[in-house]
Structure formats: C-alpha cells, structure tokens
Amino acid sequence: MDDVEVHFEKEQGLLDRFRSDASVVRAVDGISLDIEEQDLVCLLGESGCGKTTLGKTMIGLQRPTGGSIRYRGQDIWEAKDGEGDVEITHEEIRRALQIIHQDPGSALNPNRRIVNILSEPLRHTHPNISQAERRERMHSLLERVGMTPAGDFLERYPHQLSGGEKQRVVLARALLMNPNAILADEAISAVDVSLRIEIMDLMLELQEEFDTSFLFISHDLSNARYFAEHGDGRIAVMYLGEIVEIGTAERLIHDPRHPYTEVLRWATPNLDLDAMEAEEPPIRQIDVPDPVNPPSGCRFHTRCPVAREACREEHPTLEDVDGGDGKAACFREDPNHRYWDSEPLEGAAESREEFFANAAAETSDSNSETANSD
Ligand SMILES: Nc1ncnc2c1ncn2[C@@H]1O[C@H](COP(=O)(O)OP(=O)(O)OP(=O)(O)O)[C@@H](O)[C@H]1O
C-alpha cells in the first residue's frame, strides 16, 4: 500500500445539503505498508480509527480515494478497471485476498448446508475435480479446523453450529480459495473467551501450513500481542486514520516510542508489566477527536501528555526507531528536532514522569478540597 487514502463523504442532514463544504471523514489518511509473503501484521487501535477501512482496502474490497495498492506488483484497481497492462487479473486477486468477518453468523448463508457453503469456493478453485474428491477435500479441511466428525458437520445448517464452529467454517471456506493473504477482522471477538486462544493457535498453524499472510484487526493489545508474538509478526498502531507506530509486540510493549502506544498499553491491564505503575491514563483528554476534522500537526497532540507547540504545527512522519525494530511517528525520536526547544502545550508536561506527578498532585488537591467542603 502506497500513501493510501480513503475519504468518505459524511452522510448529511437536510440543512447540510444546502452547504457547499460537504464534510469528509478521513478514515485512512496516507498509509504506506508492505505485507510480505507469510507475513503477519496486526492492526491495533480504538474504535473508529480506520482499521476495517484499511483492511478492506488492502484486500481490494474498498476503493481508495488516493494512493495505490499493488498485489505482486499489479495495481488492484487498474486490474479491476482493465487499465494499463494487466498482468494479474482481478479475479485472481480476489481469490488470493480473502476476508474473515467479525460476525461469522452473518457471513454464512442461513439457508444452505455447510457442504454447499464449502463446495462453492472449491468449484471455483478446482473446477475439474470430481464430486467425491470435492467432498473428500472439504472433509479433511473440516477435520483440520477441529470439526469432527466432519461428515456430520457437512450436513448441518449454520444455525446448528456454535459461534466457534461457525468461525471455523468461515476459516475453512477462506482457506479453500488457496489465498495468499487473509484479513481477519476482529475474527475472534465473536468467539467465547475460553476458546479464543485455541482459535488463535489454529489460525497461526494454518497460516504456516497454507503459506498465507495474515492481517489481523483488533482493538485489544493482548490479542494483537498473542498473534504477533506467536506468529513472529508486527503490530501496527493506528490513530485517526494513520499508522503512528509499527514494530514487534516485544518492542511495542516493553519499549513503546509513541505516547499513543502507551495509552493502549495502559488500557490493557492484563499485560503483566512491572513498569505499568500508572493508575491514571497517560492522556490529557479521554475523547477521541472527530476524523472529519482531525487536529493539525500530530493528530495525537490534543491528548498527548508530552505534546509541545511543534506538535500542533508540524505533522510527524513514520521514521525508523533508533536502536530498535520498526517505526514511529513522534518528534521525540529525533534528538535534534525543534520539539525539544518548543513550549509544552496546556496541560502537557516536560516529561511523562512530571505529567504523572502533576496528575497525582491534582488528585490529592481535589480530594482535600472535597474533604474541606464536607
Ligand atoms: N462507508 C462509510 N461511509 C462513511 N463513513 C464511514 C464509512 N465506513 C467507515 N466510515 C467512518 O470511517 C471511520 C473509520 O471507520 P472504521 O470502521 O474503518 O474504523 P475501525 O477502527 O475499524 O472501527 P471499529 O473498531 O469500530 O470497527 C469512522 O469514523 C467511520 O464512521
């Protein structure tokens, strides 16, 4: 993905229609990302930051309003529109890039038996095999995804399956297309908590067996960490339509370079980190700004505990992090940046430690005020 943008025209009310300045939601705003063969990337961020839009754009389900997406060098949308020299057809690209939705129930046609749901992709990828061979393939894949006796499951309808079983069918159906990459959009949030690790392990095993890349979308750092650590992949942290940090789970959790990554760490209490001493969230404001009108400069500057004037004025780009893996978009990574000479913004502090010391002092002041007024 090269400098990809997806801007949506915001739905307008009656009065807005008479105004010329239609508002635009900057769901994805200038993202470049390479996904290699057998790669694993987890997109992580708060609700509405653009994860699903970016994922769908990556697999060719959403047309970008700017930038380009190439699959093995072929521009996906030029293939679709039949523009230029098309080396890989759009049909081939659609087969190669598959999606597993958040809600497996709605992804399966309720009126069709599992056998019919699964034979459809096989007819597509292997038009010349016999019915018996097709059944044999479906049978062995269902067993592989942990659904035994497979013959019994093949005859069922989706409503006769549990959430976890439906998710396994959806996974099997995606794999029957022999994909090169699978987008799993919050794919385990519909699965019972007790089964999540099992499904995540299954996906990781199948990734290796089927030689696919995976793009996982999650708002939960502990799930993203599990995938990235066990699948030897990266986590890309998104904020208001941009990637603000990317790297291994180990580095992001133990040595985050972007203050927003710290917020996500703070919001994930089960990470068992000694360093997680803070009781207060490391932000100045809880509310996420509107993607229709994102803040100037660094989009995180309105919430960042260590934001300075430079952050309001200048837009940071993703740069390699010093002495570590991955990239971060924060001026604090550059010791020579004018950030260091500019003034802290209102409510921000010189350092993270000072921010927390101030927050603790304010809390005790307000506690004593409450005590006095009592
Ligand atoms: N088709 C659309 N038309 C207009 N706005 C849209 C459309 N799809 C998404 N958006 C907006 O784009 C922004 C990003 O949405 P997106 O669903 O990609 O975020 P997300 O991070 O996946 O959120 P969630 O975790 O809640 O699914 C949001 O402000 C959303 O309201």
Give an account of the 3D structure.
- It comes from Halogeometricum luteum.
- Keywords: ATP-binding, Nucleotide-binding, Transport.
- GO terms for molecular function: ATP binding.
- It is a single chain.
- With 374 residues, the chain is α/β, with parallel strands linked by helices.
- The protein has a single domain, classed as Rossmann fold.
- The protein contains 14 helices and 13 strands.
- The protein is globular.
- The mean pLDDT is 88.
- The structure holds adenosine-5'-triphosphate.
- The site of adenosine-5'-triphosphate has 13 residues, from strand 2 and helix 1.
Number of domains: 1
The CATH superfamily is P-loop containing nucleotide triphosphate hydrolases
Share of β-strand residues: 15-25%
User: What is the CA–CA distance across the termini?
Assistant: 59 Å
Shape: globular
Task: Provide a short characterization of the protein structure.
The chain has 14 helices and 13 strands.
List its salient traits.
three-stranded antiparallel β-sheet; Rossmann fold; P-loop_NTPase; binds adenosine-5'-triphosphate; 374 residues
